[in-house]
Amino acid sequence: MLCGKGATVGASREPWGFSLIVNGHREGPLLAAALASVEEAASPLVARGISVELILCLDRPDHYTLAVAKILRQRARWPFRLLRLNHGDLALARNSAVRAARQPWLAFLDGDDLWAANWLEAALALLQCEETPEQLILHPRYNVYFPEPGVLVSPDQGELADPLGVLLADNLWTALSLAHRRVYRRYPYRPNRLQEGFGYEDWNWNLRTVAAGFQHRAVPDTCHFLRRQPQSLGQRSQALGVLVTPLT
Amino acid sequence: MSDPRATVAPSQPGEIWLFHGSSYRAALAEPQRLELAAASEEELLQHWLEQGLAQGLSPSPRFGAEYYLASNPDVGAAGLNPWLHWCEYGAQEGRLPHPAFPRALMQGRSGPAALRAWIAEVGETPPELKCLEPLWRRALAIEPLLGRLQWQDQLQGQLLSDQAYKGTFRASHICRIRALVPQLRRLVLLPQLDLGGAIRVASHGAQLAAQLDGGEGTLLLCTDGSDRGAAAWFAGAGLIYGLQDDPLLALDREQAALLVAQLISGLQPAQVLLANSAAGWDALARWGPQLSRCSSITAQLNCRDYGPGGVPLGGYADDQLRKALPQLEAVLFDHRRFADQLVQQFALPAAEARKLKLQYQPVTTATALEQWGPAVLWAGRLVEQKRPELLAAVAGLLPHRCFELWAPGRELEDWRDWGLELPNVHWCGAFTAVDQLPLERYGAYLHTAAFEGMPNLVLELGARGMPVVASDVGGLPELLNRENGWLVNTSTGDLGAQAGRLAGALEQLFGDPAQARQRGLALQEKLRQQHSPEVFGAGAPALSGFFRPIRGRVG
User: Fold this and answer.
1) Is A135 on the interface with B (CB under 8 A)?
2) Fold of B174-358
3) Whole-structure pTM value
4) Domain boundaries defined on chain B
5) Average pLDDT in the A94-111 region?
6) Contacts of B286 in chain A (CB under 8 A)
7) CB-defined contacts A:B, below 8 A
8) What does the pLDDT look like over A149-177, one tens digit per residue?
9) Quick check: A20 and A38 in contact, CB under 8 A?
10) A13-48: per-residue pLDDT in tens?
């Protein structure tokens, strides 16, 4: 996407820079694939002189996962921080990573998933074409599920007549978003309350950010590869009959 | 169909265009694609009409021109345009436009109508699939399990058949509901608006609440069916919306229950009245703790269902109430007996038992006729519950007495199936309100039901002073006694014995007109004291927050 704009953001024109946050728990060697995809997606940005840092955020990891993470840290070619947390909640873990991030733009990945190679470059290209990129929350156009195949198309918020109404029924976007740090700081993820029957921290975050006036945008020609895990939080929530945490 | 533009244009307001510009552009060869990179939808449409159509290009990703030609060689052999052929002939001949097209949607529709039905079901599909394959190949070098994706066959097929580009049916319903009632304050959950006692009870509750706020912010949500026969009962009580009204958006019971839960947790109406809605009860049983944090929920219950031989078939009281009771503010009964029975049978603790509350339904008394007629009135649905076979047996014992049958809101063809084809039994047709009945023809109302709550017809006819002979079931003993009617045991003995007791009561009634009139007036007086709209309205606020004004918070 070409729009001829420069390499700084908005009116303040702060330099572009990305904190790439990978959330992990007990992924073990699956982390290696996730981080390899991060490296591949970040390489074009680094080549253009854009700052990136990688934050591997492990919430109550098992020994196996921690050992893999340490090896990956040794291999890292860019600033790499390993956060060990004891939240036991993905929402709080994401919030901790946001607080730790030093770059203005944040991009999330879960430790068993992969970004497509063009994700960061395509997202940056879209942001650079916008007058107010801080108002955007970016998602890939497609979510490709594996090993059992499946594809979900992420709609662009502008394509929906009533995005809030649709969001009350369906979660339109995963947590693997990309947006300015201020969005995540102003609207931190709310903890899941599975015992009370409320969860889906990403869905609730989508609801709140849409209600607050941010624009969720699908970046054309991009995808994430999402691993179906029988024990994932989303599937556990479904089994428990959990509803999305309400707006208020 | 001579005008190609008409094949893709909306044929009536509210329909979508079938031309999908970005799909069309993506299908063009590169020089044209770049040339049209910034073209508007209208410019792309013009391009298709002037060039693409003649090249056999499809206006929509949901019509596979190559697939159509490959599947229908006769079309290509005749040199026909695949899109125009399908629109004009192919669809009605049952030819598929795409391998993923659900054949059930054909239904003799024209091509454009069939395509719209499919798009309404699954949404339009952006076609930029080509971008995914190189990304997948690069990721494959990192994650070997990605090799299990059979890219072309599985994913492309799924994108075209199983994606949620426009949201689910639930999402479509919620968007429509938000447009209909932007600020939801009260939600009434109904099965549908059929002419039945439970719906009548619900209408009384909704109408009473509407006296507080004019029905503003009230949604009457029909979750299970599309009958609207009783819509007039709810006039002014709120806006009606049905989950099953649009056949293209119909929900099964599980999805309807989830929608109810999402509606309550998402829009947070201050008050919910649950009135015999299956989806509503299912939602409450499954997500009750969450929903009760969002809204105050009151339910209405009238009676159990029973099968042949008096075997209980269960119902909301047995299936869902036992689990959901802690999450309810109140459960309202139209008579006391059933509530007392549940408290005893379920061993309810005092705190929960107190939630089971009696709310006699309102009826307005009218001046009684001076002279009643000689015939017997029987009115009700011809179903097992109402025991038309018992009516037939009674009529058989009283051949000199004329019996006239009325059924609420429907023409029934099977009344003879119940043994009612007797010389003294006459089928009169359907009615929607008691005022439509020629009451001057009748000297008694005969009620033969096997089980009941508090039957509305007994209330309405009693309010006009008509003498009543009724089975001793449900709430009727709380209304009828020897002073104001004839309450007859129809639960013991065989059919002949039961009919004999009812026939005896009728003969006593017709044999002593003065006593019949006296009992009719006594029933009218009892209704005035126990069931007047004033009594109903004055007592309701203490029973449930649904009948109190909603202040401050708006959902």
Assistant:
1) no
2) Rossmann fold (3.40.50)
3) 0.80
4) 4-124, 174-358, 375-531
5) 97
6) 241
7) 133
8) 777 888 889 888 899 999 999 889 999 99
9) yes
10) 689 999 999 999 999 999 999 999 999 999 999 999
